[in-house]
Amino acid sequence: MTTQESDIVSQIQEAEEKAAAIVRRAEEERRRLVAAAEEQATVLLQATRAEVRQACEGIIARAKADAAELESRARAEATEQAEKAASIPPAREEEAIKLVVERFFEKWR
């Protein structure tokens, strides 16, 4: 092998080594970027879960408050109707009870 051929082989080997080093650095950088992206995705997912949980807790609290309000109104209405029914003469009591029940259910449908 001539000196020129030997130099060419050396240059090729050097180029291959440089290319291999570039590939290794690129692979390391890719792994670092993937790890960073996975970490960021995990953080975002946890934040999203917390936000969803907080929103659900708010919805549940509002629903409980609304249910309590409706129950309070229903009790007040039932008490009012019972008081009205108690003031009706016994002869018309059965008719009045039916009327009260019908009106009550009509209001809450």
List the helices and strands and how they pair.
Layout: H1 3-86, H2 93-107
Helix pairs in contact: 1-2
Question: What does this protein look like?
Answer:
It comes from candidate division WOR-3 bacterium. This is V-type ATP synthase subunit H. The chain has helices at 3-86, 93-107. It is mainly α and 109 residues long. It has one domain. Helix 1 packs antiparallel against helix 2 (93-107). The termini are far apart. The model has no long low-confidence stretch (mean pLDDT 83).
The total count of strands amounts to 0
Helix content: over 70%
Following the backbone from N to C, one meets helices and strands in this order, namely: HH
Note the total helix count: 2
**For the report, how would you describe the main beta sheet?**
none
Q: Quickly give the structural class.
A: mainly alpha
State mean pLDDT (0 to 100 scale): 83
Keywords: Coiled coil
Coiled coil: 9-80
Organism: candidate division WOR-3 bacterium
Protein name: V-type ATP synthase subunit H
